[in-house]
Amino acid sequence: MAQKETNGSNGEHTTSRPPPTPSPLRFSKFFQANLRILVTGGAGFIGSHLVDKLMENEKHEVIVADNFFTGSKDNLKKWIGHPRFELIRHDVTQPLLVEVDQIYHLACPASPIFYKHNPVKTIKTNVIGTLNMLGLAKRVGARILLTSTSEVYGDPLEHPQTEAYWGNVNPIGVRSCYDEGKRVAETLMFDYHRQHGIEIRIARIFNTYGPRMNIDDGRVVSNFIAQAVRGEPLTVQKPGTQTRSFCYVADMVDGLIKLMNGNNTGPINLGNPGEFTMLELAENVKELINPEVTVMMTENTPDDPRQRKPDITKAKETKA
Ligand SMILES: NC(=O)c1ccc[n+]([C@@H]2O[C@H](COP(=O)([O-])OP(=O)(O)OC[C@H]3O[C@@H](n4cnc5c(N)ncnc54)[C@H](O)[C@@H]3O)[C@@H](O)[C@H]2O)c1
Ligand SMILES: O=c1ccn([C@@H]2O[C@H](COP(=O)(O)OP(=O)(O)O[C@H]3OC[C@@H](O)[C@H](O)[C@H]3O)[C@@H](O)[C@H]2O)c(=O)[nH]1
């Protein structure tokens, strides 16, 4: 069969086979909504904001599958019992049988202290979980979006990071279950796309913050704010000159929905290029919340990336 060709290693619009036709069950008499959307990890921080936005559209029916490892039903309480909403306790390392048109595949612990807690489970979630969701996408002819991460660039030697950069990742370090796991997940996405014609989208998400981050989940924004509110020292991990670029969650959700509904497979960087050192961030939080608190330098963890800033040229050019 004649196929559209790839235009390079980033795979924009790559297709080697036509996409499978949607499952006939999709059109059953029980089907009410125009689009039935599965959100894995939808009880988590970004996932629950994504669900809020998707539910605003009355033509959407939303199914969340989550094992509640880092997420919570509380994040979705306003939708529980809604006729267009369904919440399933499900671990993505097990196959899932549902009839859907789109899959936002977010399920994976994101905070380093949680993804390092059970690294074997984290890599299973990334690899087996993504395989299962791709299997589902193939069976029902759904489009699938993976939330990959800036961590695929590792401790980057190019700055800012473009999608063309292949990264500098330690394959055997304590972060590998997450960053190598996401790299394999991206590989699986492209292999299913080329081999089976699955419609894929890959977002490489940079550090995101906002309401519903777990207060004690270890990420720097929630840590500093919680510490400032409690009047405790702000724990800046050494050397403090490492940088991150922080994006507000509502902007991230807009980006994810645009990517899903646009024509570009990605990978696409999603984030805010405003870059801070962790010392600068601590000073900002101190100034805004509690000028009395002190800043305390603490030991860092292995392989902490020294710099991170997205080049978002591609995201800006992408038409929704
Ligand atoms: N927040 C960020 O800054 C950031 C940055 C880059 C990438 N991401 C990616 O975005 C996604 C969401 O991140 P988040 O910040 O909302 O994290 P989160 O930890 O708040 O949410 C993850 C959700 O996935 C669920 N989950 C974990 N393992 C699961 C499994 N095996 N089966 C089913 N559900 C499972 C959790 O219970 C939780 O509800 C993740 O894929 C993460 O890798 C986030
Ligand atoms: O209390 C703290 C916590 C963290 N930090 C520093 O703040 C920086 C950011 O750390 P975070 O734990 O918030 O997040 P990281 O950037 O390491 O990983 C993050 O980015 C990519 C995503 O995929 C992950 O989900 C996310 O956790 C690191 O340099 C860390 O050393 C502190 O200085 N103090």
How many DSSP H or I helices? 8
Give the termini separation.
29 Å
Taken in chain order, the helices and strands follow as: EHEEEHHEHEEHEEEHEEHEH
> What is the alpha-carbon Rg in Å?
20 Å
Helix content: 25-40%
Low-confidence stretches: 1-9
Structural class comes to alpha/beta
Q: How is the main sheet built?
A: 7 strands, parallel
The top-level CATH class of the domain at 34-210 and 247-272 and 307-317 is Alpha Beta
CATH topology description of the domain at 34-210 and 247-272 and 307-317:
Rossmann fold
Beta fraction: 15-25%
Mean pLDDT: 92
Number of strands: 13
Please tell me what the overall shape is: globular
The CATH homologous superfamily of the domain at 34-210 and 247-272 and 307-317 is termed: NAD(P)-binding Rossmann-like Domain
Pathway: Nucleotide-sugar biosynthesis; UDP-alpha-D-xylose biosynthesis; UDP-alpha-D-xylose from UDP-alpha-D-glucuronate: step 1/1
Function: Catalyzes the NAD-dependent decarboxylation of UDP-glucuronic acid to UDP-xylose. Necessary for the biosynthesis of the core tetrasaccharide in glycosaminoglycan biosynthesis.
Enzyme class: lyase
Catalytic activity: UDP-alpha-D-glucuronate + H(+) = UDP-alpha-D-xylose + CO2
Provide a compact summary of the structure.
Belongs to the NAD(P)-dependent epimerase/dehydratase family. UDP-glucuronic acid decarboxylase subfamily. One of its GO terms (molecular function) is UDP-glucuronate decarboxylase activity. It is built from 8 helices and 13 strands.
